[in-house]
Amino acid sequence: MSAVVVLILAGLIVAAVVRLVRRRRRAAAGAEAGEAAVPTFRIVALGPRGSGKTLLLSSMYHEMRLPGPRGYHVAAPHDQMVRLSGWFNQVADYDQDWPKGTLAGDTREFTFDVRTRAASGAVHTVLSLGYLEYAGGVLTEPRPPGEGFQEELLERIRSADALFGIIDGFHLRQWFDGLPQGRRRLQHALTTMVTLMLSEPRPITFVITKWDLLRDIDADEDGRLRMVRKLLMTNPDFRELVKVHSAQRVVRLIPVSAVGPDFAGLTADGHVAKLPDGEVRPTNVDAPLAAVVPDIFEQVERRVDQAKLHTLIEGVRRQTAGGPGAALAELGSYVTRAAGLAAGALSPLYSVFVGEAMLELNRSHERDQASRQNLADRLLGEAEREIEEFRACRRRVMRELRSRVDVLEGRLPSSRLSDD
User: Fold this and answer.
1) CA–CA separation, 236 vs 191, rounded Å?
2) DSSP class of residue 256?
3) pTM of the model
4) At the topology level of CATH, where does 40-286 sit?
5) Which tops the pLDDT comparison, 284 or 315?
């Protein structure tokens, strides 16, 4: 072989190695910085005017912006953070009125990055949640022809990964107190929301706002929730949605209070007012967001071919020749295609995320703790340090999200709706 050919081959090998190193460094940097390498799950929140969507959103962000005991937190772009904090401060200030609701032309869209801190001190963004809060008037009130807001809402619902239906606890309180206007308004809101949700194959969470207004209905919180659930099931549309959806996907009923049990109360004329010595202590506001990702993957598990899924999972466990990353990407690519998750095309690491998430959920059914730990150790041992750390963070967040859901269901069994 001539010297020229040898030099050319050597040059090609060096160039290939350089390109490989650069790709790995870019992948690691993208993982650390949380660039386009993480998936975004889209949530659409539906609820009538005055149901507390804005209060819930601001309180949700306030509670989840710091890690606290949960080990992860959410971050929003600066302009959104200022807006959310402003609403929360307005709520907490006794001398200020409640924040105004969303106008029809002012649909609010937010992006929350779910972040966690690794043992090295680096902060990783492991996934993002796109949160769309639609104006209540678009949902429940007649709109002018050609306005376009309702058409846009329908399109957003079709492209969502999960749906929130906001149920006004004030109207529930009125219903319990025998006031017909509460029952009428709530029935109308339920019928409208359910009509939009019924044909959409998405995980659905009904969020009961202003839960503090119902605290004297029953001393036991799950007993209180059972009473509310029984009331809601008298609505034929709500009952039909639970019947149809609960067999194939998750339907939840989560009670929340954006202000807590001692901040507001009902006046003599039946309005909600702030108490002079009240203290804001939000209750359960993190639960709806924490449940979103596990619920999406629980639905995904139901929709994929289980035999194919288990074969691919076994391939991951056998550490295929392509390494754990390639095996997880293969598993994730299959799940993404089978479940119709369009976001899978956005980034190669999305497939790895999906694969690891499915593997993690599948492991929860195994009994041998030692083998699970050994598998995790082997997977980590073969990865590069930067990607290894990122994946460890991602797995930990997935476990914590699932743990939050388990705690919720353990404390409030009635939060998981079924046709019983």
Assistant:
1) 8
2) -
3) 0.76
4) Rossmann fold (3.40.50)
5) 284
